[in-house]
Amino acid sequence: MDNLRIRQATADDIDNLCVLIFEHGPNPWNHLPSVEVTAHLQQIADGSVSALLAERGSELLGFISYQHSRHFARYQPPARCGQEHAYICEAVTHRAVAGQGLGSRLLKQVVAALAEQGVSDIYIDRHEENAASAGMMRKAGFVEIETYADPERRSNGSRRTTVCCLRLHV
Predict the structure, then answer these.
(1) Which residues, listed in sequence order, are joined to residue 88 by a DSSP beta bridge?
(2) Domain enclosing residue 115, as ranges
(3) Which pLDDT does position 81 carry in this prediction?
(4) Contact predicate 124/106, CB 8 Å
(5) Where are the alpha helices (DSSP H) in 9-101?
(6) Nearby residues of 74 by Cβ (< 8 Å), 6 or more positions away
(7) What's the pLDDT tens digit per position in 30-64?
């Protein structure tokens, strides 16, 4: 991954992020409804969503989007009940660099950025059978905490979602 630059996405990057995820993200395991994903990425403009991207020259190779949340409150430890946590929303790499560790590298840097912001708990989810995502999450230290039926989001395979968590502070 020579000449790779990793940086925070800006509002000017939103259109390219949309192109990348809709061209290189679809697979049997990903739930990518275009209206919702586009609306999510549009929130980079107002700062309610962040994204770390990787590029070589002017070519966008991948990104991970994330945000502060309370959506996973039911999984929070009692000592942090009601406390804000983080959710890693979308992760995608260009097919030309798939399997070369870029997703893991971006994920580790997102975790580091969230740790610097004082976040204690980070959540991420995936299709239960998405082995590539499971490996990337495991490498970054995420632990599976629940798998549940999710037929509305998961139309293939087991039709189940697995939620994973990384606890930065115990």
Answers:
(1) 66, 124
(2) 4-167
(3) 87
(4) no
(5) 14-24, 34-42
(6) none
(7) 889 999 999 999 999 999 999 999 999 999 999 99
pTM for the full model? 0.94
Q: Tell me, what CATH number does 24's domain have?
A: 3.40.630.30
β-pairing verdict for 121-127 and 160-167: antiparallel
CA distance 15 to 42: 9
Amino acid at 147: T
Do 60 and 6 meet the contact criterion of CB atoms below 8 Å apart? no
Predicted confidence (pLDDT) at residue 170 exceeds the cutoff of 70: no
Tally the domains of the chain. Answer: 1
> How far is it, in rounded angstroms, from Cα 149 to Cα 154?
9
Contacts (Cβ under 8 Å, ≥6 apart) of 136: 91, 103, 104, 107
